[in-house]
Specification:
By secondary structure, this protein is an alpha/beta fold. 34% of the residues lie in helices and 18% in strands. The protein has one domain: Aldolase class I (TIM Barrel), CATH 3.20.20. The strands form 3 sheets. The protein has an 8-stranded parallel β-barrel with strand order 1-2-3-4-5-6-9-12, surrounded by 6 helices. A two-stranded antiparallel ribbon has the order 7-8.
Length: 272
Amino acid sequence: MNLSLIPNIKHTNSNNFFLLAGPCAIESEEMALRIAEKVIGITDKLEIPYVFKGSFRKANRSRLDSFTGIGDEKALKILKKVSDTFNVPTVTDIHEASDAAMAAEYVDVLQIPAFLVRQTDLVVAAAKTGKVVNLKKGQFMSPESMQHAVTKVKESGNEQVWVTDRGTMFGYQDMIVDFRGIPTMRKFAPTVLDVTHSLQQPNQSTGVTGGRPDMIETIARAGVVNNVDGLFIETHFDPANAKSDGANMLHLDHLEGLLSNLVAIKKTVNSL
């Protein structure tokens, strides 16, 4: 894995996991810059390679009245401002093939949502931008089956591809992380563990997704012990009032303590 190919990424020689972190969705310029500044301060201190995450649009909502975004161009420009202000790479998810070229003008990594990772046109469009493509494993898919999604990217002329595990459906309203899948998927591509989405409790009768943020450190520790290349953590300074996925996000005030513990664990793993 060559993280150094990503523009503006730092600490690539630290032997740490890399981190994708930020709010679920871009709500405003002020909130994006506030979160980015805090996370960058922490990751610089701990020498963690960092990519700021924020969705410019949320397309997979349970209810028609759920928040979907502040406008595509407005949100993408905010992501670009985060990148320019703090000299940090950014990642956002795309939902339609036509999103790929548009988003690629503003961000460094294009993410394919788990529900859409089998959509060939979408995956190929992302690959053809030349950006890093982060493929989220479908909640309904085996780790082994992700090799085919990776192959689609590579056969489209792009070797820069990651796989992200975000849990597997366990009944109607819960997820589990099967850590046997980590070494399997690492055979195909660098592998990220999406800690916070793995703790979602979807399909609630209210139409608002629940979550178990109290288990974030448990899942993250297990990921680091099992040699994930990267971690994905959604974080917000006010999760209770976040416009999307607040129930499973990590409070920003808890991020430094968590990452400090995880870096210590990583150092132990590296010494084995």
